[in-house]
Every structure is written in structure tokens, then in C-alpha cells.
Automatic annotation (TrEMBL):
CDD domains, alphabetized: M36, PA_subtilisin_1
UniProt cross-references to Gene3D superfamilies, sorted A to Z: 3.10.170.10, 3.50.30.30, Neutral Protease Domain 2
Cofactor(s) the protein requires to work: Zn(2+)
Keywords, ordered alphabetically: Hydrolase, Metal-binding, Metalloprotease, Protease, Secreted, Signal, Zinc, Zymogen
Domain Secretion system C-terminal sorting: 836-907
PANTHER family in alphabetical order: EXTRACELLULAR METALLOPROTEINASE MEP (PTHR33478:SF1)
Localization annotation: Secreted
Residue stretches making up the PA domain: 464-563
Spans traversing the lipid bilayer: none
FTP domain sequence ranges: 67-104
Species the sequence originates in: Algibacter aquimarinus
Family according to the record: Belongs to the peptidase M36 family.
Protein name as catalogued: T9SS-dependent M36 family metallopeptidase
Length: 909
């Protein structure tokens, strides 16, 4: 697969440049390193590495998984002390033996290096980057930290955050290793966070990604990777903390507790003292590891939840539970301005960040593995990286994101209001004349040209009642109000009526306000075929400085013409602008979205080790899939059925609980609901064009690829639940859902840097060996093979988008790795004995045998393992199976005789 265009890259990209190279940990420097060194030198698969290349391998990080007993060691490749971008391999050691090695090393390094020394200074690389993106850099960059091969600069005229600049090599499309300066710039308008690699010789920008990606509504989601860069961070010094056996702090929270997914799925409930004793031993409001809360607001060791109504990522307001930690804030309806219930939203966001932290701690996302805590209580990893969670962030709408820098630096979750589900409402009442009545319109916009979200950012000035006046700006189309109004005396003290067209809404409203209007009605332009979908036009008012002091709303063409023509005919009309509701949805109440966002932090920190946030930056972009799957897992209920259709973000989108949500398919094991197999990664249909006129291609969309991966994980979940049952205890249960959670967390640690679907599958297989000795190898193979990720599947050339090869075969049953499981066929057979056609089939399928096989049994099993058809034939070389009554989908046909057996995928159209 070729590299995805920058507009489609998920915002889970490299922030790994913050790690320094001044204290390289060579393999020969420790006993653990010597063990790995011996393995590398003895391995036939790694014999492509020269002695010099092996000597330049360093240990980046190690962690121990309590669940599996595995020590995970992450290695990075260097050349003469300079790091090679994303050349990271990982080793898994259990019982003092290496049982898994994921190789991502580069061979023949010396022949690929273009130079040893930079001619471009790091500060000049910053200048080149600013010039490349046409950013005006008003001041020079100041160096605030310098180590070998690494500088950190600060330039408040260029970037909101510190600018790390690190010397490294990166691989180009031809396989050459180019010496570059790797740096990151977060632009002042927050629209871009550029991650670039600048040629250290020529100053050319060789690679670029935008960490701020504005996705389309269907994949309404962005991910930013990186936050403030403190100058110095120190690893925990290993203090010993002793928590109380049972924490009693009296805390209570009015929230939508798991497994409730949203207000559509259940009711608010008061939860008391929910902190887990293992994961949060001093409670959720602690930071010093001593008894007693340090904070009475929604802030503590794992997360700080606050509002960001000013869209400045600063210190907003957090609800205060007082010394009693009572966060039981009342809420009766969501049909009100969002700021009215912001304390409840922040509490729910705080609660679920903590709950997800505590649950995944049980499965191995702990301090040593890079989880998010201010204080690691002496349990390894780097401290001071609790989540900053922003509720009702005003910098965007219809979206959410999560920023994941490396271990020791704070991630940020931004939760926005969703307006896409807003409907127009009766905000305009006209009295007098022949057109009196109530009119449908968008929500009134208030001060600061607010976007109709119902948030009062200025004085409360609604309702407004006054006579109506059509504006006149003295131009050819005077009602558009794009210039100063020549009928200002008539407009003063009135509600101005303006036609849409020719200039921005803000200009029209400003001109009316300058003329003394106390309110504005904007009517759609003279194209009734383009009448407003208020969900689309609700954000068209923009922002002004200083803020507007008058309300405004938007009506459709027909109503606008009716009112304007009546006024022009001399009718004396008055109107009242009110605020009747149809308010936005707060994504902080969509727990599935909250979990999804937090999930990006989990998958990013665990893939390639917690120091390497760039390891999910590849063309498969599977991070979206893990995040969807995490959301599904923690909202799973005992009453759920595998064939149910599960959507993501249905509440935020304004759908009922059976809606499709924000993905191209619901998640279900039923192929009539979700038919995706691995071949769907080749789907390169053009969906349209972006703002630059470039094609938007389906299989280059990160959420589409993520949906395919999550589909396979969801099938795997139900295979585990079918085998082990479901346990509603997400923390300490022993059901199939608990076991597959442990499997996936361990698989993330094992799959390696820049994984594709094959690597993800193999990581899970290795995780099963680590956790159980391999008792579920057959089950895992069968699930993935059913979705086309069988033993002979291929990801193809990474430079090509359409060459993935699906395969439905499981391994040879004689494979020693399958010794501990029994679900695959164990009898040998001759494949050429049987011929099965047609396939796909519609009403019937024929099985031909080349020789007499005696009594033969034909079992047709659906993808959930249920037997849907069974027939027997004695001494018949031709058998026709009637499948006309079966639902469309994929089935497994098992043909068994006394001397042989075969299993084949069968597709029913």
C-alpha cells in the first residue's frame, strides 16, 4: 500500500522526537541486552545484519506485563549514534527465554546513508519549515534545551508549543537513508500541527504530516498528537507508596455509568466511590500518594477535566465537589443551552477517563507500559502525564480528538459539541399584516457571532421584539446589506431583514448592528432549490472581535420572500426572536466516543513502546479500529447478541440506538449487516473531491480502514464469548470478553512498529501463546480466516493501495503451534478429491468427488459456529445442497468422510 495522503492521515503520528539520544543503552551494556544480542547473532532470520549494525542497536524501553509474565523490550536502530526513524523492533521474553521477536530493522545501512554530518543548523530547519508553509515568523527561535543530536526551541510567534528538532535518518521511497532534522510546529491558529523531516543538507522538506486532520462528517473525527513540551522531565525515582486497603473518600458522581453508552441507552445515576483500589489506590483526586484528596474539582492523578469555552487549551473551569467530593450535579433535560449543564458534562468526562484508566490497568496498560498518571507511585514509567480533558471545547464542532505524546508528556482529549443533529425550530414569530405566524429558523446566534450552539457568550438579550425593516445598502441588490446601510435611520431600533448573498454573514450583521438594529433575520438567497439544511448552515455566522451585541437567525427562501415582499408592499410587521431549543449534543455524554478517544492513547502508547508515538503512523491506520473496538467492549451487555448491529456515535449524531452512527457499516457478525472482508482494503472508489480538488478515495480514509480492522476484532470477541461466556465485571471478570481484552492489550505490545493487518493478527496469536500457552490459536485463525485474513493473506507492496490479497485458509493442522487446540480439522485430505461449485452460489451448490468416499457428511456452519444445514450421502460422487432458504453471507462447508475431511468457505449471494 502506498502512503496515505496527508489529509487522510490519522492524527496519531510521531511525537517520538522528544526522546534524547545522549544516553544510548547499547545491547552489550546490560545482562538483558547481552541475552538479546546473543539471540540476534544466533538467529537465521536476522543474519542480514552486519556486526557493525548489531553493535548500533540500542534498548529504548522495557516493561513487564503482569498478566502474561512477559518482559517487553523495544529496540531502536542507529547509525553512528543517530537514530533511524521508526526502525524499532520489539522482543518478548518469558521464563527467561525469547519467544517472540518482531523485526523492523533496516539492512545494509552503510550503503544507504547519504551523509554523516548536517550542513543546515537546526534553527535554520525551523525557518525552512515556516517558509514552506508560508508562516510568518516574526521572531527568531530561542534554544531552551540542547543535548546530543537534539535541540528544543521556543518561538511564540510561530508555534503554540516548544519546537523539538532532532537529527535522525529517515528512509525515502527508494530505500535511501537521508539525514534530516525532524521537527514539529503547532501553528498559532490551531489549524495545523506540522510534523516534518527537513533535509539536513539542502533544507528541503522531504516528509510532512498534519497532525490536525479535519475529517468529513461521515468520519467526523480528528486526532492531534502532541501537547506542551516541558523542558525537562524526570522519571519516577522509585518511592514506595502504601495505599489504604479500601479507600473511603465519600466521592459521588452523577453520570452515565458503563455499560450505558449515552443518554439514549440509559439514565444518569449517582455512583459512589468508584475508584479501583489497584489502579487508583489513593482515589481519583489524589496526586501525592498520601491519604486525602489534593483536589476537590474534577482533577486528580489520572485526568483533569475542565471546560475550554475560550478554545485556548488553557486552564478552564472545573466543577467543584467541595471537601465532600460530591459531584452529584442535577440534570433534568439536555434540551437547553449546553453551558447550563457543563458541570454534569465535565463530571461525566472525568468519570469515564478514570474508569477507562482503571479498567485497562487490569489488563496491562499500567505505569510501566506508559499509561496516563501524574504520579506513578513508584511503579515504573514516567510521571506527570495525566490526561487534559476539555469539555465543550469551542475550537471545533462535530468532532473529538485525543493527543498522545510519548510517556511522561500530557495527552489531551478535546470533546466538542455536535450540531449535525440539530433541527430548525420555531424561533421567529411575526405579528401584524397578512404574513403573521410562527416561522422555522436556525437557533438564534448571540454575541460574538456565536454558531447557534445555544451558548451565551455575551449578554442575555433574547427575546427581542421590534418592527421589521428590509435593509438598503445602496447597491444593485440593496437587500444584501454588504455595504454600510443607507437606511440606517429606519433600521435603528428595529430587526433588520437581509438577503443572503455576495458577502459573509458577519459583514451583513455587522452593518446592521452599526446602523442600530437590535436583531437580524437573514433569508436564504434567490435559489429555492438550495434552501437551507439548518444543520449545515448553523455555523455560518463566524466570529467577530469585538463580539456582536445583537441576536441573528437564518430562515429559508420561501419564508424570506414572504416577509420581504410583505414589508415592501407596505405592511407594518413586527417580530419576536426567541430561543426555543433544538440544542447541540455534547459528545462528553457519548461514552462510546469518550472511550474511542482514550483508546487512541492506549494503542499509541503500547505499539512500539511508550516512547514512540509514531509507530501507528503507517498506511493501514488501524488505530481507529482499536478505538472503535474499545468503545464496543466497554458498552457491551449480557443481553447483547452477536448478530446485533452496533453503531459508533449514534447519540452524538442524533440517531436512535439502532442507528449506523459515523461509520460505513454497523459492527456485527452477521454478514448481511457487515460483509467486510480483507479484500475491502482494496476498494479505491472516489468519493468526491476535497477543498484542494484532490480525489477523496475510500481506502485512503482512516475510519474506513479502521472499521475493517474493528470488524475482525468484533468477530473475535464473539468467538471468545461463545467459548467462555460473558462476564459483566469489566475489571476482574473471567468471561470471553475479559479474556479477549487481555489478548488485545498484549497483542498491541507484541505486534511491532508500523503494523498492518497481518502484524495485528500475528500479535494476537503471539499474545495467546504468552497468556495461555496457545490454547486459542485455532479459534483466532478461524475468525481471521473467515474475514479473509487467513494464513496466505498478504498486505502487498506498501507503496500500492490495491494489491492486498485476502485468503480464507487456516494453517495446516499438523502445525506444532496448534497442538493445544482442537477446533481445526485434524485429518489429512487430498484437496483435489473435492470440487465445489458455483462459489459464490445463490440457490444450490454442487459437490463432486473424484472417487467413492463411502458415507460423507456435509455440514454448513455460519460464521457464528451455528450448524444451519446437515446432510449425508452414501457412495454418491455428486451431491447438490439446497441453500436457497439461507440468508446471504459467508458460511463454512465441512465435508467429512471416514478417510478424509475438508473445510471450505462458501459465499451465499
Amino acid at each position: 500500500m502506498r502512503k496515505i495522503h496527508q489529509y487522510a492521515i490519522v492524527l496519531l503520528l510521531s511525537f517520538g522526537v522528544i526522546t534524547t539520544m545522549n544516553a544510548q543503552n547499547k545491547l552489550m551494556d546490560s545482562q538483558l541486552g547481552l541475552q538479546i544480542l546473543d539471540f540476534i547473532e544466533q538467529s537465521d532470520e536476522l543474519d542480514y545484519l552486519s556486526a557493525d549494525e548489531i553493535s548500533d542497536i540500542c534498548i529504548d524501553k522495557k516493561s513487564f506485563s503482569k498478566k502474561s509474565g512477559v518482559t517487553h523490550v523495544y529496540l531502536y536502530q542507529t547509525y553512528k549514534g543517530v537514530k533511524i526513524h521508526n526502525a524499532i523492533s520489539n522482543v518478548a521474553i518469558k521464563n527467561n527465554k525469547i519467544f517472540h521477536f518482531k523485526d523492523n530493522f533496516i539492512s545494509n545501512i552503510k550503503s544507504k546513508i547519504n551523509t554523516l554530518s548536517p550542513t543546515l543548523k537546526p534553527e535554520h530547519a525551523i525557518q525552512k519549515t515556516a517558509s514552506y508553509f508560508n508562516i510568518n515568523m516574526a521572531a527568531s527561535s530561542k534554544s531552551i534545551q540542547t543535548t546530543k543530536n537534539k535541540n528544543v526551541f521556543f518561538n511564540k510567534s510561530l508555534s503554540q508549543e516548544s519546537i523539538p528538532v532532532e537529527l535522525m535518518y529517515c528512509e525515502d521511497a527508494a530505500g535511501n537513508l537521508i539525514l534530516v532534522w525532524d521537527l514539529n510546529i503547532f501553528t498559532l491558529d490551531s489549524k495545523h500541527w506540522w510534523s516534518v523531516r527537513v533535509d539536513a543538507i539542502t533544507g528541503a522538506v522531504l516528509q510532512q504530516e498534519d497532525w490536525v486532520i479535519n475529517c468529513s462528517f461521515e468520519s467526523a473525527h480528528t486526532h492531534v498528537n502532541g501537547v506542551a513540551l516541558p523542558v525537562l522531565k524526570e522519571e519516577n525515582k522509585g518511592f514506595n507508596f502504601e495505599a489504604e486497603a479500601f479507600l473511603v473518600d465519600g466521592s459521588q458522581y452523577n453520570v452515565l455509568p458503563l455499560p450505558i453508552e449515552s443518554p439514549n441507552h440509559g439514565n444518569f445515576q449517582v455512583v459512589t466511590e468508584p475508584a479501583d483500589n489497584l489502579a487508583s489506590p489513593f482515589g481519583w483526586h489524589d496526586t501525592d500518594g498520601l491519604s486525602g484528596a489534593e483536589f476537590t474539582i474534577t482533577r486528580g492523578n489520572n485526568v483533569w477535566a475542565q471546560d475550554d469555552l475560550n478554545a485556548n487549551n488553557g486552564e478552564g473551569v472545573s466543577p467543584d465537589g467541595t471537601l465532600s467530593l460530591n459531584f452529584n450535579f442535577p440534570i433534568t433535560t439536555l434540551d437547553q443551552p449546553a453551558t447550563n449543564y457543563i458541570d454534569v458534562a465535565a463530571t461525566n468526562l472525568f468519570y469515564h477517563n478514570n474508569v477507562v484508566h482503571d479498567i485497562f490497568y487490569q489488563y496491562g496498560f499500567d505505569e510501566a507500559s506508559g499509561n496516563f498518571q501524574f504520579n506513578n507511585y513508584g511503579n515504573g514509567g514516567n510521571d506527570d502525564d495525566a490526561v487534559f480533558a476539555d469539555v465543550q471545547d469551542a475550537s471545533d464542532t462535530n468532532n473529538a480528538n485525543f493527543a498522545t505524546p510519548p510517556d511522561g508528556f500530557n495527552p489531551r482529549m478535546q470533546m466538542f459539541l455536535w450540531t449535525r443533529n440539530q433541527l430548525p425550530t420555531n424561533n421567529l414569530t411575526v405579528t401584524g399584516g397578512t404574513v403573521a405566524g410562527i416561522y422555522v429558523s436556525s437557533n438564534p446566534s448571540r454575541a460574538n457571532g456565536s454558531d447557534g450552539l445555544g451558548n451565551i457568550t455575551g449578554p442575555s438579550i433574547i427575546p427581542v421584539t421590534a418592527n421589521l425593516v428590509v435593509v438598503d445598502d445602496g447597491t444593485a441588490i440593496p437587500e444584501e446589506g454588504c455595504d454600510a446601510l443607507i437606511n440606517a435611520l429606519d433600521v435603528a431600533g428595529k430587526i433588520a431583514v437581509i438577503r443572503r448573498g455576495s458577502c459573509a454573514f458577519t459583514a451583513k450583521i455587522q452593518n446592521a448592528q452599526d446602523a442600530g438594529a437590535i436583531g437580524v433575520i437573514v433569508a436564504n438567497h434567490n435559489n429555492p432549490a438550495n434552501d437551507p439544511n439548518y444543520r449545515e448552515y448553523i455555523n455560518m455566522y463566524g466570529v467577530t472581535d469585538p463580539a456582536f451585541t445583537i441576536p441573528s437567525l437564518f430562515i429559508n427562501f420561501e419564508d424570506g420572500e414572504t416577509i420581504i415582499n410583505a414589508i415592501k408592499a407596505g405592511e407594518n410587521l413586527s417580530a419576536t426572536i426567541v430561543e426555543n431549543g433544538s440544542f447541540p449534543t455534547d459528545s462528553s455524554f457519548d461514552n462510546g466516543i469518550v472511550i474511542h478517544e482514550y483508546g487512541h492513547g492506549i494503542s499509541t502508547r503500547l505499539t512500539g513502546g511508550a516512547n514512540n508515538s509514531g509507530c501507528l503512523n503507517n498506511n493501514f491506520q488501524m488505530g481507529e479500529g482499536w478505538s472503535d473496538w474499545f468503545a464496543l467492549m466497554l458498552t457491551m451487555k449480557a443481553s447483547d447478541v452477536d448478530t446485533d448491529g452496533r453503531g459508533i456515535g449514534t447519540f452524538a449524531l442524533g440517531q436512535d440506538i439502532n442507528g449506523r452512527g459515523i461509520r460505513t457499516r454497523q459492527y456485527s457478525t452477521d454478514f448481511s449487516i457487515n460483509e467486510y472482508t480483507f479484500a475491502a482494503t482494496n476498494d479505491d472508489r472516489v468519493l468526491g473531491q476535497d477543498d484542494d480538488g484532490d480525489d477523496i478515495i475510500l481506502n485512503q480514509q482512516v475510519h474506513y480502514i479502521g472499521t475493517l480492522w474493528a470488524t475482525m476484532l468484533w468477530d473475535l470477541t464473539w468467538a471468545y464469548v461463545d467459548k467462555y461466556g460473558f462476564d459483566p465485571d469489566f475489571y476482574n471478570g473471567n468471561g470471553g470478553n475479559n479474556r479477549v481484552l487481555a489478548l488485545v492489550v498484549e497483542g498491541l505490545k507484541l505486534q511491532g512498529c508500523s503494523p498492518d493487518f497481518i502484524d495485528g493478527r500475528d500479535g494476537l496469536l503471539a499474545a495467546d501463546v504468552a497468556l495461555t500457552g496457545g490454547e486459542n490459536q485455532c479459534l483466532i485463525w478461524e475468525v481471521f480466516a473467515t474475514r479473509g485474513l487467513g494464513v496466505n493473506a498478504s498486505s502487498g507492496d506498501r507503496e500500492v493501495f490495491t494489491d492486498q490479497v485476502e485468503n480464507f485458509d487456516t494453517p495446516d493442522p499438523s502445525d506444532i503451534s496448534l497442538a493445544n487446540c482442537s477446533t481445526l480439522n485434524t485429518e489429512s485430505f487430498e484437496e483435489n478429491i473435492f470440487k465445489i461449485f458455483p462459489n459464490p452460489a445463490r440457490n444450490s451448490v454442487t459437490v463432486l468427488m473424484d472417487e467413492e468416499m463411502g458415507n460423507v457428511t456435509y455440514n454448513l456452519v455460519d460464521i457464528n459456529g451455528r450448524l444451519v444445514l446437515s446432510e449425508s450421502s452414501n457412495s454418491s460422487r455428486r451431491t447438490i445442497l439446497d441453500i436457497s432458504r439461507l440468508q446471504s453471507g459467508i458460511y463454512i462447508l465441512q465435508i467429512k468422510s471416514a478417510i478424509s475431511s475438508i473445510t471450505r468457505k462458501l459465499i451465499k449471494n
